[in-house]
Amino acid sequence: MKRLVYVLSLVALWSLTASWAQVLPPNEAGVSMGHLNTIVRDVEATKKFWELLGATAIQVDGTVVMKTSGMLVFLTPGSPPPGGNRGTPMEHIGVNVRNAEQVIAKLKAAGVRVDLREGRTPVSVNVSTPDGLVIEMERVEEEDLEPARREHSPTIAVADHLHYRLPESVRPEAQAWYGKLFGAIPLSENNRGQTLAGDIPGIRLRSSVSKDQPSPTRGRAVDRIGFEVKDLEAFCKKLEAAGMKFVQPYSKTRHKSYASAEITDPWGTSIELTEGLNRF
Predict the structure, then answer these.
(1) Cα 256–259–260 angle (5° rounding)?
(2) What is the spatial distance between Cα 217 and Cα 10, in angstroms, rounded to a whole number?
(3) Residues 236/195/23/147 CA torsion (nearest 10 deg)
(4) Structure confidence at residue 155 (pLDDT)
(5) Distance CA 197, CA 188 (A)
(6) Which domain holds residue 87?
(7) 137: domain CATH number?
(8) Which of 13, 86, 192, 253 lies most in the core, judged by the most C-beta atoms within 10 Å?
(9) How many domains does the chain have?
């Protein structure tokens, strides 16, 4: 009898972890954070890194994907240049982490370099994936999570922000662009000189000043970011009517499990639009 109870408990736990969806409900524009498509030299090493943050490995159309709260991270085999996404418009990503001290200890034990960000409270550290993509980690307490986050956040790491570095002259333009196209709610500048370009369900878009003109994200550690879109075909038709040029047009067959299209923002960030990743 005890063995039966144990087995049933495992089944219930598996069902809980396998069934939750990482993508949050969309905003009024029909958009939410969906995924990052990363290029990695060593899939297994990068998989282990994300597992230290509590992400779960799944398969989507034959690609290893790390599932964490707020987004999926595709691990596409390849050879990105050194330096992660430094020098591109979307420079690094940020996550909030439960049990931050324990996670930091596990990362250090695994040989991951952990850089404490001085003068920051609560705990804030930078870590890097095996391909040099910087991840800014900040501690979060359960009560600090918004209700939608608590419901969709059984993992340790919770997607928090994408950090852009852009010339000062274009930061207001970027804020307006993401607001107009994706319904990002504009936010004001904070005391660290970061214009919070806007909130989209599942992610916050931040920017700070770059003195140099950024290079495109194509081919880098984060090759493209991804937004999940309700009724993607109609959304793409509206963009096309407004003069948007597509890198990849809308298609239901390019990927087996989801529809997609691809555009590039005016500053070089590749953006994949999807419909159907919210099932995973």
Answers:
(1) 115
(2) 42
(3) -130
(4) 53
(5) 8
(6) 25-279
(7) 3.10.180.10
(8) 86
(9) 1
Integer Cα distance of 247 and 244 in angstroms = 10
**135-172: b (≥16 Cβ within 10 Å) or e:** bbbbbbeeeebeeebeebbebbbbbbbbbbbbbeebbe
- Residue 252, token pair as written in the block: 């239901």
Omega before residue 122 within 30° of 0, cis? yes
Reduce the DSSP state of residue 33 to 3 states and report it.
strand
Q: What phi and psi, each to the nearest 5 degrees, are found at residue 203?
A: -160, 155
Amino acid sitting at position 55: A
Low-confidence ranges of the chain (pLDDT < 70): 1-21, 117-123, 141-155, 189-197
Q: Is residue 35 part of a domain?
A: yes
Closest to 239 measured CA to CA, from 185, 189, 182 = 182
The tens digit of pLDDT for each residue in 206-250 reads 998 999 999 999 999 999 999 999 999 999 999 999 999 999 999
Assigned domain for 3 exists: no
pLDDT at 70: 86
Distance CA 59, CA 163 (A): 27
9 assigned to some structural domain: no
User: ∠29-33-162 over CA atoms, to 5°?
Assistant: 115
Distance CA(172)–CA(178), nearest Å, equals: 10
3-state SS class at 106: helix
Whether 170 is covered by a domain: the verdict is yes
Running DSSP on this structure, what letter comes out for residue 8? H
Cα 257 from Cα 255, distance rounded (Å): 6
CA torsion 103→69→237→196, rounded to 10°?
-60
Cα 274 to Cα 121: distance, rounded to the nearest angstrom: 36
pLDDT in tens, 152-171: 444 577 899 999 999 999 99
Q: What is the pLDDT of residue 13?
A: 32
